[in-house]
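@channel sequence for tomorrow's demo:
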Amino acid sequence: MQPLMEESFRWYGPNDTVPLSYIRQTGATAVFTSLHQIPYGDLWPREAIRERIDIVEAAGLKWNAVESVPVHEDVRTGSGDLKTLFANYAQTVRNLGAEGVRTVIYNFMPVLDWIRTDMHYILPDGAEALRYDPIRFAAFEVYALKRPGAEADFTAEQLERAKAWWSDLDDPAREEFIQSIIDVFPGCKMGLKIDDIRTMLAKYEKIDEDGLRANYARFLEAVVPACEEAGVRLAVHADDPPFPVLGLPRIVSTAEHVEKVLKMVDSPANGLCLCAGSFSANPKNDLVAMAKRFGPRINAVHLRSTQRLPDGSFFEANHLEGSVNMPELVKTLFAEMDRRKAEGREDWQLAFRPDHGHVMMDDLAKASTITPGYSAIGRMRGLAELRGLMVGIRASQTR
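C-alpha cells (generated this afternoon):
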C-alpha cells in the first residue's frame, strides 16, 4: 500500500489539558506545537526550541511543524521597529531549521486570529461544536464594539435579530460573550478588553487590501531568504473566517488571494497551510481545485470541514461531513505527495492534523477547561475517520 500522510495532533505545550501521552494513544506520530510562552515578536532561542523537542521526543513523538511563529501586529500595520521584528523572525527560523524543525505555520489576519460566536453550539447528538453566526457577530460589532459603520455590513433583518438577541442577555452573559470573541489567541490569554480592540482597529483606518498586502510582501521579502538558507518552509494559514470582518481587509481568504501571496516571493519556502475547514466557510472556495492548483506549494495540511447554512452561519462539522468533499481532497493530496516522491524529494510526505473536534462523551464534563476546538476525544474521532478514509483510498489504488 502506498504511504499515507503523516498523522499529527496539535499540542499547546506543557500546560495543555491533553498531554502528549494521550496524543500518542490516538495513533498520531507527531505534533504541531509552538513556544506560546514567548511574546509575539521576540526571538526564539535555540535552547528553548531544543528543550521542546526533547519533551516531545521523550513521549515517543516528533515535532514536525511549528504552529505557529506569530506575526506581530506591527508587521501587519507596517509600524514600529520592523527591522528588529524581521530580524527576530528570521533568526527564529534559522534556529528552528538548525534543530531540524522544517515547517512554520503562521497567519496574516489583522487584530484577531480567528472568530466564532458560539463556543458550545449543541449538535443533534448532544456533542458541542464551534459556530459562527452573523446575527451574534452583528450584536458584537454594533452593541459591544460600537464600531462606526458596522451596520452597513449586515442586512436589516440581521440587525433586527441582533438587537433582540443582545437585549435578552444580562451583563455577565454579555461580558462572557465579548471575551469569547476577543481573547482566544492560540495557546495564550492576552487579557484584552474591548477598548484594546478599538485601539488596534484604529491603526487600520488607512490600510486597505493593497496596503495590507504591501506590508505582507515586506515581511516575506525579509524572512523568506532566511527560510531558504535554513531549509525551512513557511505555510500561511487561511483567514478564519475567510471573508471580511470588523471592517478589516482580508488577503488570505480565496484562491485568488493565495495566488497573489505565492507570487509575492516565488519560492518553495513561501507556501500554504491548506486548512480545509477555514477555506470551506467561504462558498467561493473549491478545496479540491485549490489543492490541485497550489499542490507544489502546500507545506502543511489541516483537515476538517464546516457546514455552511443559508443564513450565512456555519458550524464545525464532523471531519467527513459538511461542505468539504474530503475523499476527493485526500485523493488530490495523495497525488501531490506521490508526485513529490517520484521527483526524489526528501520532504515528499505531507503532514496533516485533524483540525478542531467536537466536545463529546467524557469531555463534556470538562468542557470549561478545554481550549475551544481542541478536545481530545473529538479530535481522536476525526483522526480515526481520516485514517480510515486514507487507508481505504490507498487500498483501492493498489488493486
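heads up for whoever presents: DSSP finds 14 helices and twelve strands in the chain.
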